[in-house]
Amino acid sequence: MKYLLILFLLTSCSHSLTLNPKGCYSKGLVKEHESESLILKDTIISFGSESEKYLEKILEKKKIDCKKVKNMNYTFKQGPFDSLISILPLVSVRTLIINYTLE
Q1: What is the phi/psi pair of residue 47, to 5°?
Q2: Which of the residues 56, 69, 70, 88 could staple to 23 if both were Cys, CB 3.0 to 4.6 A apart?
Q3: What is the residue-wise DSSP string for 42-84?
Q4: Segment 42-77, tens digit of pLDDT
Q5: For the whole model, what pTM was predicted?
């Protein structure tokens, strides 16, 4: 039982998640926002050691056209529920938080 617990802990920590901006091209500018930011939260569940998610698909799922996004900032967070599920071998759960403004 002790070895099984160690195996769970080792395999649940070996995940990589990539957020691919393909389809949502922009320039990287640092600028102060004039308008109020909107917030989008999405839970990303991945199986295996590596996962790639497309920003365009995430925005489409929430009915947001990425060409109308003026400014964007995103962060990955892992809350208590995400951490609890990630204990399972080869399963990773993260919450993606996107702050954005529209044109």
Answers
A1: -120, 135
A2: 56
A3: EEEEEESSEEEEEHHHHHHHTT--GGGEEEEEEEEE--HHHHH
A4: 888 887 766 788 888 888 888 988 888 888 888 888
A5: 0.68
Q: What does residue 93 show for φ and ψ, rounded to 5 degrees?
A: -125, 125
Number of domains in the chain: 1
The domain in which residue 70 lies consists of 2-102
- Helix (H) or strand (E) holding 7, with range, is helix 2-12
**For residue range 10-19, what is the model confidence (pLDDT) as tens digits?**
555 556 667 7
Phi-psi region of 79 (alpha: psi -120 to 50; beta: other; left: phi over 0): beta
